[in-house]
Amino acid sequence: MNAALIIIFAVMVLSICLGIMAKKGKDMDLEQWSVGGRGFGTIFVFLLMAGEIYTTFTFLGGSGWAYGKGGPTYYIIGYGCLAYIMSYFLLPKIWKYAKENQLLSQSDFFVSKYKSPYLGILVSLVGVVAMIPYFVLQLKGLGIIVSESSYGTISPTIAIWIGLAVVTVYVMVSGIHGSAWTAVAKDILILVVVLFLGIYLPIHYYGGIQPMFEAVEAAKPGFLALPDSGMSPSWFVTTVLLTALGFYMWPHTFGSIYSAQNEKVFRKNAIFMPIYQLVLLFVFFVGFAAILQVKGLTGPDADLALLKLSIQTFDPWVVGVIGAAGILTALVPGSMILMAASTILAKNVYKVIKPDLSDAQVTRTARYLVPVVALIAVFFTFKGGNTLVALLLMGYSLVTQLFPTLIFSLMKNNFVTKAGAFAGIGSGVATVAYVTITGETVGTIFPFLPQAIQDFNVGIIAMIVNLIVLCAVSAFTKSTAVVNTKAEKAL
Amino acid sequence: MSLIKWLALIPFIGLLGGTYFANKVTPYLFGMPFLLGYCVIWVVITTVIMVVIYKLDPRNREGDAQ
Questions:
Q1: What is the ipTM of this complex?
Q2: For this UniProt entry, which segments traverse the membrane (chain A) (predicted)?
Q3: Which domain holds residue A489?
């Protein structure tokens, strides 16, 4: 047992305590459990949403990408910025509608807007399928962190089981209250760790930030900008746009919108979120610092850059603090995902199939689904061989397919029909699935197009298919829809 | 307000359209590669724009205690 491990375990115990204490004095019905009784103020909502930025993907993946890919990493800063601008206009509308209609999950929103419980099932399944890779990604990150910072004494497999047990316990007991309190601990710790590493390492190894970039540029000319093909500016622009649109489409992020006290919370957050994003710069700096110091990490191993450099530079207790911060970045989003997945499976799938369930039964089902979802994710974690980035991008392409249907539903005169919503989401998801399974890119499907278009993020194609089918089917079924509304009015 | 909210489009144009022209390593901006510095500038501009929109949006004038 070294100093690093002691610190890591102390933080794990602390997060369980915080999680369980958060329950105190609250009657845990489904509304308390999943959306905190709609009582969270600016700071909690800020932290829950910021949990989205500082996941293990950004902590390990962000520095890993800076190390392995260079310039393309900057997209992470761009998409958040644009997503927050949209949040100013979008989130208050979603929140208000959700409150008026007592909605608890993302699927509820689609069910209510399009008056179709079956659309809710489709949206739920898309959401759960997208969240599983996202959760797997957190678990993989957790395994890497614990095994690296324990200097190999704990295997990733054992680390994943322990981490999973921690999340499952506090999600079952405290629901979203647990996540919010752990998010507080996480953001303080991660802020300190990231700022320290991002400033100390470039100065320690290169004498400053610009000297570091100059050294990298001298060793690998052009690495710090975008390449001419592949991850070119066209890739950058389409990826920023797609991920920005998908940002709030994750069921757990969408669900945390409901937890706010009032709609002003979102408008206030839209000011602070972009600037808070700049903390990511320091994560990138760590990855860039590692380029010339830790050699030979290729492929998925690039995700180890931050930890390898830290182990090489610091005493075990510092590594322990870094590892602890990293673990919290896996636990908070992990708990949000588990909760969102269990809520929608219980309420929007199970309850639709068995409509005679009471609210108490649905709540109980949601809780008991937590370990089930967790075990499914573990199965994929040990089975799949994908890198962190590949997992995240697939999930993003899936949830982004919900965006058009959602946006149109917020317009005053929504022309999208029930059938159009089904067909649009279905065709978009089918396209993503086809592309993911066959490994096609825009370039391989349309080899005759100019390079700039070949580099488009392939999710764009799915989005276009989605939009065309959505509009076509809506136009085709419009006449019947209008007749139906007239008939309803006549009654 | 209706006119002011179009300000929110500026970062989209700057970040998405500008990437094609800003894709280079030198000159260094704030000690960072040009493209990264360019993104950072837009993050700061975005914050300023959101402050302006927030201040001019009549919906935010109501008191905090609601």
A1: 0.89
A2: 6-22, 43-67, 73-95, 116-137, 157-176, 188-207, 233-250, 271-292, 317-345, 366-382, 388-408, 415-436, 456-476
A3: 401-491
